[in-house]
Each structure stands twice: as C-alpha cells, then as structure tokens.
Amino acid sequence: MSARLLQWAGQAAAYAGFAAFVGYFSSAPAYTHLDPAMALVKVSFSHGAPRQAACRERSAEELAKLPPTMRRKMDCPRVRPTVSLELLVDGIPLIAESLPPSGLSKDGPSRIYRTIPVTAGTHTLTARLRDTIRDDGEWDYERTITAELAPAQNFVVDFRADAGGFLFR
To answer: Is residue 74 part of a domain?
Structure first.
C-alpha cells in the first residue's frame, strides 16, 4: 500500500512541476515583438512582368518539322523578365533587389514579402520598380510620398500595375 501512495505522490509532483513550468513560461519572460518607438514598413506584392518577347507566327516549314500535337501557328515565349525593386526611406535604400520570375519555365509572377522596422515619425518613402528587359535607366513605375508613421503601425507598400503602380496604406 505504501508503494501505491508513493507512486501517486510522484505522479502528482510530476504534474505539479509540469504545470509550474508551463505557467512560468506562459507569462514570465517578457517578449517584445517590436520596440514601442518603431513602426513596420511591409512590402508585399506579386507582379507578373510582361513577356520578354512578343509572339511570332511560325512558317509552314517550321510547322511541318513539329510533331502534329505541337503544331500551333503562333510561337509565344513564356519567359518573363526579372523585376527590379528599390524602396528608399528618407533617401536611404532599404530594399534594392532583383526579383526573378517564379515557376519552372520562369513564366510566373515575381514575389516579395519584407518587413522592415523603421523609427516612428514623418518619413519620405520612394518606391521604384522596373519590369522590362532594360538593366539600367529609368524606372517603369515610381512613386514618392511623405507619411506619418505612428508607433507600432503596420504601413504597407503594395504594387498593382492595373491601379497605376504603387499603393501605400
């Protein structure tokens, strides 16, 4: 009978120890996700650049060389160019990246998701994007705004070509 009591006491002690462990770590070590004086600038979008090359019509000789199941009159390359992106905050570049197209055939959209902590306050944000084959030169889309970022604010930079370019929210 005493062995049974010892077994129950040991089990109760193990449960109490586990409950104390979980209770302590559920609230004791203070974790701060973001410094209270900071705001977050989130850049998040998916953009499919125009195709690198235009469609062309195949000649009768080219069509004859192809298997019957692949005889399409128009030849349209699938590859999209790499998208170049820059984000400047107060003239300081925070993002300067080349975003390759997704997919096995490099025909999908280019994607980005970045979260950048920035001090709260008034900032000038400039977003630039190039989605053509050119490497240098002018940007295809560019927008500059002045924004008042509150502490702990999530400020989103989005891109929609059909809406005219960059959207700041």
So the answer is: no
Secondary structure E strands in the chain: 38-47, 56-57, 74-75, 83-89, 92-99, 110-119, 121-130, 141-149, 154-160, 165-168
Evaluate whether 82 touches 110 at the Cβ level (below 8 Å).
Answer: yes
- Give the Cα separation of 14 and 32 in Å (integer): 31
**Closest by Cα among 168, 158, 169 to 47:** 158
What tens digit of pLDDT does each residue of 141-166 get? Answer: 999 999 999 999 999 999 999 999 99
Give strand pairing partners of 75. 56
CATH of the domain at 116: 2.60.40
Q: How far apart are CA 112 and CA 115, in angstroms?
A: 10
Segments of the chain with pLDDT less than 50:
none
Let me know: does 129 contact 166? Beta carbons within 8 Å.
yes
Q: Would you say residue 57 lies in a domain?
A: no
Residue 43, both tokens: 């850049």
